[in-house]
Design goal:
Length: 147
């Protein structure tokens, strides 16, 4: 694996985690949105990651990589899916979106779990930055050997 491949892999991780953080931020921003353009409450979105080489499963890649050179080229976003979990029902008869019994359908966004996911995305982003900086430092040290 060349130095540039490892930098490209870290860069793909940075891009994927940035998108994940953007989607989490969107979920948090819409945690109280009771009516979207479709007329329903906001539905939480989830980012699905995959390898850039999706032809094999992870275990197949692991078996292939034992003692061999890996052909994985990083991570990519496979899709952004809506969370199918049910909406929350809150009793608020004064709300404009309340039904005849006084209940309002609220988004299926849990702020605490979204914040935990945001911390996880931030840590993964930082890990990719650290890996990229380590690769850069090794390349610079290799260049110093020739002096």
């Amino acid at each position: 694996m060349s130095v540039f491949n490892s930098i490209n892999i870290s860069a793909s991780g940075l891009t994927a985690e940035r998108l994940r953080a953007d989607i989490i931020s969107k979920n948090i921003a819409n945690a109280d949105t009771t009516r979207t353009a479709a007329g329903t409450p906001y539905r939480r979105q989830v980012v699905i990651f995959g390898t850039k080489d999706n032809k094999k499963s992870f275990s197949e890649h692991l078996e292939h990589a034992k003692g061999q050179k890996s052909n994985l080229m990083g991570v990519e976003v496979n899709s952004i899916q809506d969370d199918p979990s049910p909406f929350k029902r809150i009793y608020d008869p004064g709300h404009p979106d309340a039904d005849e019994s006084g209940y309002v359908l609220m988004p299926n966004v849990d702020i605490v779990s979204e914040m935990a996911n945001l911390i996880s995305a931030t840590r993964a982003y930082e890990a990719n930055v650290t890996a990229m900086n380590g690769t850069k430092a090794m390349a610079l040290k290799a260049l110093e050997i020739g002096k």
